[in-house]
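Good day; I would like, with your permission, to put a structural problem before you. What I wish to show you is a protein chain and, alongside it, a tokenised description of its three-dimensional fold. Here, with my thanks, is the record as I have it:
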Amino acid sequence: MEIPGKEFYNRLDIDSVLSAVEDAGFSVSGHCLALNSLENRVYDVGLEEGGRLVVKFYRPARWTLNQILEEHSFLKELEEGEIPVVAPLPLENGVTVRETKGIYYTIWPLQKGRLVEELDKNNLVQTGRLLARIHNIGASKPSKHRIEYNLKNFGEEPLRFLKENEFLPTHLWKRYEEAANRIFSSFSEASKDMPFHRIHGDCHKGNLIQTADGLCFIDFDDFVTGPAVQDFWMLLPFGDSASEYEREIFLEGYREFREFRQSWFDLVEPLRGLRYIHYSAWIAKRWEDPSFPNAFPHFGTEEYWEKETQDLERLGSDLPVSSEPDARNSIAKTEESELTNKDFFWDMED
């Protein structure tokens, strides 16, 4: 099925970018620099009167208009809760999304800052506080349009896509599928009775910057309904006693504003396994985009799939599995108690 805007998106050039920004009501200087993003097309654009802004073109058919608008609405809620995030600029009549040749785009302020390469003790506490406040606002009402971080969306459907399109070598498929199903079962068991709410969804150090005013979370493009720990495991270290110490410092800040049970960390390894599968399917689904073969030259090779299979097997072998055969077909979520004030690219891994 032909995706509207796909060809234009894949061939997006500087003239088209500048024209879109001008159509949104800005006078451009001609400066246009492509930023590091694979999932969307993002550009740093200079303005004629001085200053710069960022324009983001959303990948066609990934999110609906309502899903994009809900991202923007969530960011507005967070801003109103005095949480440092970057929200899109309102354009004519207050709209935040425009369309050009079948693709949606949004104008953002250019937020200056530097990436946080390492979280020291002070930053761990601050990050914990910020995420707790983000999650409190995220839990204050349900998402209407965004997807849920569940087995269907992040495990079963990606696995089915890989199988139906025969991406894996035939001799590896059975091993890969068995390891995936073990991870699915473990996820289902570990997520029982765990609260799900609106979360950042892709919370790693590449989406946390240090500004002149302090820490700031960016890029809520992957915002979903999911468990709080999904926003922890790519941000925090896991594995040794030093990692445990850092996590406890982070939780000191988080628990000032929101409950977090230690047992919820049991979901980390299943989440890691789901990301292995989802990430491979994410690349596979975008392989016709010219930027993907350049970014992932080893994807699809025998060596790639052998390593992916071994990684899944190694991870799955250490996981407990549910004693209920059909546990992975239903993920329970609990109602949460009354809340207070709060919360906070599926791109390259950092």
